[in-house]
Structure formats: C-alpha cells, structure tokens
Write a structure and sequence with these properties.
Elements (H helix, E strand, L loop, with lengths): L1 H47 L1 H12 E6 L6 E2 L5 E14 H5 L1 H15 L1 H6 L2 H31 L3 H34 L14 H4 L1 E8 L1 H13 L4 E10 L4 E6 L14 E6 L3 H4 L2 E3 L2 H6 L20 E3 L2 H5 L1 H4 L4 E6 L5 E4 L7 E2 L4 H10 L11 H4 L20 E7 L5 E7 L2 H5 L3 H7 L5 H4 L9 H10 L9 E3 L16 E2 L4 E2 L3 E3 L1 H7 L2 H11 L1 H10 L12 E7 L8 E7 L9 H4 L8 H7 L10 H12 L3 E3 L13 E3 L4 H16 L7 E3 L5 E3 L6 E11 L3 E3 L8 E3 L2 E11 L4 E9 L5 H18 L28 E2 L4 E2 L1
C-alpha cells in the first residue's frame, strides 16, 4: 500500500509540474502576444501615423496667419475703374472668445493660482468646477467691457446685433466641426477597421474652432490701431488683419441730360440733373459671402488636411455674385498668402499673396451713363406722353391703353459693328433700384432681370429685314420683284392677317399697292412679309433666323451655371440640376408644330412669323447683333463684353445676296429719312410733322417695331383694383455711321408696354445716336476706335485675359 501511495504521489507531482509548465507557457505566450501588439501599436504610432501626429503637434506649435490677396481691378475700355479692391482692416475674434472657452481657460488658471497646486490636487472635480465658476464671470465681464463694447461702438451696432453675429458664427462653426470629426472618423475606420482609435477624435478641435472669425469689417486705420492694442492686451482673443473692400465708383454717380433736341412736347433749354444709382451694375455684378456649395466646389481645407490658398472659407471669403464678378471669378480672385511663426524659436516663414488679374471690358462707362440717364422717367422720354398716343380728327386727345405719365421700363444696347464689342447695355430698373423697392414692386418690376441679355420679347416688325434676307437667299424673291398689298393676306378674309394701314372697322381702307423690297421695309408693309413667310415655309425661315442668332444664347460673357432644385412630388428627395443664367437665347418655333410636316399646315402661324409675331422671342442684345450682321453685309461676329487685347474675332459669312443687303440698307434708310418711312416722324396737336431723327452729320438706318406684349395688370383709376390691359412693346433697332456711309454702331431700344416704336423708342434712339457722335464713334476722323488694341498702362501684362469662346467664360 505504501508503494502504491508513493507511486500515486510521484504521479501527482509530475502532473502538477506539467500543468504548471503549461500555465507558464500560456503566460509567456500571452506576454509575448501583448508585447507584439504593443510593438505593432508603437510602430503604427511612430511610423505609419508619425507624419499625421507630427502635423497635429506642429499645428499647435506654429501660429499661422493668412495674408489677404487683392481682387483684380475691372476697367472699362478707356481705363475707367468699374470695380476695385480697397485696403481696409478687419477685426476678428478667436473662436475661444466667442464660445466662452477663453474666459473659462483664464478662470481655470486664476483658480489654480488661488488654491495652489497642492490644494488643487486635493479638490474633487465638482469643487474644482465651482472654483473655476467663481472666477469665470469676472473674465467674461472683462472681455465684454474691453473687447465687445469697443466692437459695438466702432461698428455702430447694438448688443442684439452683435450677439446675432456671434450666434451665427457659432452655429456655422459647430456644424463644420461636427462634419470635420465625422469625416475624420470615417477616414480612420476605412484605414484601420474596427481597431480605429476614434475615441480621441471627439476631443479634437476642428480647424474652424482654432480660427479667428471676422466680426467687424472695413474699419479704418485709426480703429484698426486701437484694436491692435487690444490684441496685445488680450492675446488669443482679438486679432486685427488687413482685408479688402470692393468699391464700385459708378454705383452712385451724377450726370446732366440736355433736352434741347428732345421732341417739342418735352423739349427744354434747361438740362435735368440726375443722381444715378447702379450704372452698369448688372454687368459689373456684386460680391457676396460664400455658401456651402462654393466651399464644396473649392475648399480651403483639402481632403488630405492641406490648404488650397485660393480655396474658399465659409464665413471669411467673398465670391462674385453675378455679372462679370461672377463669370470672371477665377481670373479676378487672387491667391492668399500665409505667415507662419514658430512659437518656440520665433522664426517666420512667409508665402506672399498673389493679386487677381485685371480685366478690361468693352463697355464705355461714360456712354453707358448717358444712355442710362435717357431711361430715367423724370427725363421725359421713358414715359407715356400724349404726342405718342395722338389726337383724333377733331383735336381731342386719344386714349391709350396706359394713362399719360406712366413710367416705362426698358433697355438699350449698342454694339460696335466692326468688332462685335458691346459698348453699352442699359437695363431699367437696375439692381440698385430694386433694393429700394417693396417685395410686390420687385415682383412686378423685375429689377434683377438684366433686360438686354435676359429680357425676351417678340421681335415684331424689326424682324422684316431678316425675313427678306432669308427669302432672297432661298430664291423666293429676286431683285426688283414686287408684291401687291391689298390690305389683307387671304383674298376672302379682310378681318385677319391685315396690313397696319387697313382697318375697315375704323374707316381706314388704304393699301400700299405694289411694293418692292425697300419700299416694303420703309413702309413696314405686313402683306409683303406675310407673303414671303408663306412662300418660304416655316422650316426654311426658322433655319435662317437661327443663322442670325435667334434661339441660341449669345455667350457674350455674362452667362454662368447655377444649381437649382427640381420640384419633387413630395415623396422623393429634392434633386439639384445645373442651369445657365445671365444670358438667354430667346425662342424659335418648333417647325414640326406649324410647318409642312404638321398634320394640317397652319398658314396663319407661318405668315405671322414674317412680321415677327407668334412663337418667336429674342433679347435686345440679339436684336442689335442681328442688325450688326446686316451692317456687316451678312457677316456674323459674336458679341462680347470682354475686351480682347490681341488678335481678331472669328466671323461667319452667311452669303446673303448682295442685292438683298442693298435693299435692306435702302429700306432701312428710307424708314427714318423719307416722309413715307414708318420711323420718320410723329404728328403734333396742330398737325405739324416733326422728324424723329434730326441728327446732323450722321447716316442712319433703322426700323421701328410694335410687338404684342402679354396682358399687363394696372390700377388705372387708383382705386386699388388692377385691370388687365393689352399693350404693345415699342422697338427701334438699326445701325448708324458717319457721313461717309459706313455703319459703325448697331443700336437696339425697347420700351416695355410703350406702344408705338417710332414715337416712343425712336426719340431715345435719336439721343443715343447723338451720344455716340459726341463720343467720336461714328466718323472716320473721330477720336474713337473700336478695333482690338493693347491698352498699355503700368499694370502691364496683368491686363491681358483670354476668353473661352465656347463657354462664354473668362479663363
């Protein structure tokens, strides 16, 4: 038994030793595994993530300040400044001073000093917070008295307004910080999976939480100096940095309009002194703060944590809102610089800022100002007057659709024939006018619409010369051919498709009789052009109208892309689509709807196209451009708002028969110079005829047009009830040159709901021609040139820009 017991004891000892060995082995393996994991983690931190951690450390050891870059200057064709940056100063608060962290940090240091380090260690967390709270209010009050109060005083703002600004900054920054941290977490999860150390991310501060945020802009040097003293006194709370303020000298300007050549009823030997607002503001454009989509398109903070010095920072940067400021944003915008100071050594590194490029426009701002003034109602031309409506045979005033004294909106465009350069493009009302309007008035007057480029109107009779060119090119009419006007187009219907002189219900049964092309243009005979359109057919006519530019956006330099929401059915998520705004192309009819391919040919709609009515629209720019093409004898040169300093603009010859161009020239000249011309004169109360275009030393070719307008809602008697009134738009389009007979400028004028083209738009066109003559644009010996040239100034090569003809943008 003893032997057995002894053997059992020995066996048990062996098993215990083996078990202990296995446990030791497991412990060694576990320790080894732990060491390996620790080594791998160390390797990851010291190698794989070394650069990232170094960046984070360096971010706190280097003080970075951004150096503003000036935006390029915008000038007119003669060098006058249209928009320019002016150096000013901006007062900013560090985010710590906005969200309360600055006062809290100061209070913590004060509490620690008051209690002592040993005493601090003995305090519970709640006791420490209570001690900090006891000091925090005092520091918050100091910040309020010494920093916030001077900001309110310098900016002339109330406490409520300042608090609103600071609240908006906090809302924006916290949103950015949340997005920043989520993006950081996602990046770590993609890199390390489930082992990603995302817990530390919550304690990270986003770049926007480390930045200073502007609370006071455009302060002068004296105010800036005072705040610089505060910045020394309150480091980490206040910063003062140079900034740029955009000035536009012609936002407010003064001019005088002489009226000694006006129509007799509004003529005066005394000029009208005007204070104009918003001269060329649709063209120049404005600046605004950047939106989230602007930052997303080109962020200042790049995805890899770097910086794009030309990128955008929400809450800090400005971007072009519309006009050339928008379309030439990438050219005008400069690249900010950077000043980096090592907090340990004090060493500085500096990346200089680069200013944006200057841009020269084709606009003559002096001419633009003169034409702008002509559309001011108080001048007397852009307003309904009795001489425009007329009198009956007994001398009684006729009643028009709108009462005498009604102010009119409109547009004027002037194009240099040789180059296609836009010398002036006036829109009434302006953006500046709109800011003073009520919401209802803005909805009715549409000041945000740039009428020369965005207003679409039926052409009316100003289309007739283009119809002749189309018919001649297609062989529908030959040189010297005549068409008889019998007053109405259909032989058996005298109540439709009539000539403007044939109105049996009013006792007018006159006809034009047989007419050649020049006579038909001069007299604006409807029957002549109904016939041409009918014989051409809608497909061929529309094809030729598109060659003249109808239905296509001109891309003259103001078109840009914008995102808009697509309406949804309420269930689907709203979608965004990209649209082009700033310029429109008007419309031409769908040839399959009314042409020979339709189930039943609509001859009425086809014929109406011949006089510019029906489903046709174009802009004043397109009208001036089409007549500039006529003035070049059928050569198309695309219009532009940008001054091309070198080279020639591309052109396309439409190969219109020479005789047709000659007939257009003759008919358009007769229209304004011969007594039978539709744009020659108006008749006064006593029966006296007064010429509209009594301008010496020039030769004028032009066409009037009266185009049907949509019904207009008007309170005619002032009782607060609006009535629907049917009116017509008043057109005058033509070209003009000196006594040598060479056309040099094309002009279009439209007065919305003005009625008679000759009596309403004609006098404004006459004054525009006088302005062109005074500016030297019309004579060969004048002191003006519209040819491309290099403008040499001290700004040097930075004046040069290149324009992408395909996109209408500057690059």
């Amino acid at each position: 038994m003893a032997g057995i017991a002894s053997g059992h004891s020995a066996g048990t000892g062996k098993r215990t030793l083996a078990s202990s060995s296995r446990r030791a082995a497991w412990l060694i393996a576990l320790a080894a595994t732990t060491l390996v994991l620790l080594f791998l983690q160390l390797a990851r931190l010291s190698v794989a993530e070394y650069s990232e951690h170094i960046k984070n450390v360096e971010r706190f050891m280097v003080d970075s300040r951004w150096l503003p870059a000036s935006r390029g200057t915008m000038r007119d064709r003669d060098g006058a400044i249209l928009a320019q940056d002016q150096t000013s100063w901006a007062v900013s608060l560090q985010y710590d001073a906005i969200d309360g962290s600055w006062a809290r940090a100061k209070a913590r240091r004060a509490a620690l000093e008051a209690v002592g380090r040993d005493g601090w260690r003995e305090l519970s967390p709640d006791a420490r917070d209570a001690e900090i709270d006891r000091h925090e209010e005092a520091f918050a009050q100091v910040l309020d008295d010494r920093v916030l109060a001077p900001i309110m005083a310098a900016g002339g703002i109330s406490r409520a307004e300042l608090e609103a600004r600071l609240g908006a900054i906090m809302t924006r920054v916290e949103k950015q910080a949340t997005s920043y941290r989520e993006n950081r977490k996602d990046a770590l999860r993609r890199k390390y999976g489930g082992d990603a150390p995302i817990g530390v991310i919550e304690k990270e501060r986003a770049p926007s939480q480390l930045d200073a945020h502007v609370v006071l802009e455009n302060v002068g040097p004296e105010v800036a100096f005072a705040f610089q003293q505060l910045a020394v006194e309150f480091p980490g709370a206040v910063t003062v940095e140079p900034s740029m303020r955009r000035i536009r000298p012609f936002d407010r300007t003064q001019t005088t309009v002489e009226r000694n050549n006006f129509p007799t009823p509004v003529r005066s030997s005394r000029g009208v002194d005007l204070a104009l607002e918003g001269v060329a503001d649709h063209i120049v454009g404005y600046m605004r703060g950047v939106y989230a989509e602007d930052v997303a398109a080109r962020p200042f903070r790049t995805a890899d944590g770097g910086e794009d010095l030309k990128g955008y920072r929400e809450g800090h940067d400005q971007i072009g809102s519309r006009g050339v400021e928008r379309t030439a944003e990438s050219v005008l915008r400069g690249t900010r610089g950077k000043l980096m100071t090592d907090l340990n050594s004090g060493d500085e590194q500096r990346i200089e800022s680069n200013p944006g490029l200057d841009i020269v426009l084709t606009i003559d701002i002096a001419l633009q100002t003169k034409l702008h003034a002509l559309l001011m109602p108080e001048v007397g031309l852009a307003r309904i007057e009795q001489y425009q409506i007329g009198w009956d045979k007994d001398g009684n005033p006729k009643q028009g659709p709108l009462p005498v004294g009604t102010d009119l909106k409109g547009a004027i465009v002037v194009i240099a024939v040789e180059t296609g350069e836009i010398l002036a493009a006036v829109s009434s009302p302006t953006l500046a006018d709109g800011r003073a309007m009520s919401k209802d008035d803005r909805a009715r007057e549409l000041p945000s619409m740039f009428r020369p480029f965005e207003g679409v109107y039926p052409p009316g009779s100003i289309l007739k010369p283009l119809v002749l060119c189309a018919a001649a090119s297609e062989g529908v009419i030959g040189p010297g051919d005549r068409i008889e006007c019998k007053g109405h187009f259909f032989p058996d219907r005298d109540d439709m498709l009539r000539c403007h002189v044939f109105r049996p219900t009013e006792g007018r049964t006159a006809t034009h009789g047989p007419l050649d092309a020049p006579g038909a243009i001069a007299r604006s005979c409807n029957i002549f052009f109904y016939t041409l359109a009918d014989q051409l057919g809608v497909d061929r006519l529309v094809g030729w109208l598109t060659k003249f530019g109808l239905g296509a956006r001109p891309d003259a330099g103001l078109a840009y892309e914008r995102q808009e929401q697509v309406p949804s059915d309420g269930n689907a998520q709203a979608q965004l689509r990209t649209i082009v705004v700033g310029e429109v192309g008007g419309s031409v009819p769908d040839v399959t709807g009314i042409g020979v391919d339709a189930p039943k040919r609509d001859r009425v709609s086809e014929a109406l196209l011949g006089i510019g009515q029906g489903s046709l629209t174009w802009t004043p720019l397109q009208a001036a451009q089409a007549y500039a093409t006529l003035a070049r004898r059928g050569v198309v040169v695309a219009p532009t708002i940008f001054k091309l300093m070198v080279g020639e603009r591309p052109s396309v010859d439409l190969h219109i028969p020479r005789w047709a161009i000659d007939d257009c020239f003759e008919g358009l000249h007769q229209s304004v110079a011969a007594s039978h011309g539709s744009g020659h004169h108006f008749t006064l109360h006593d029966g006296t005829r007064e010429e509209i275009f009594d301008v010496p030393g020039v030769r004028i070719w032009g066409k009037t047009g009266t185009a049907t307008a949509p019904p207009l809602k008007v309170d005619l008697d002032g009782d607060g009830t609006e009535e629907r009134v049917q009116t017509d738009h008043a057109w005058w389009v033509g070209f003009v040159g000196g006594e040598d007979g060479v056309p040099r400028c094309a002009i279009s004028v439209i007065l919305e709901n003005g009625g008679s083209g000759g009596k309403v738009a004609g006098p404004i066109a006459a004054e525009a021609i006088r302005a062109l003559a005074e500016r030297g644009y019309l004579s060969r010996s004048g002191n003006r040139s519209t040819k491309p040239r290099v403008v040499r100034r001290s700004l040097g090569r930075r004046n040069l820009i290149r324009r992408s003809m395909s996109s209408g943008r500057v690059s």
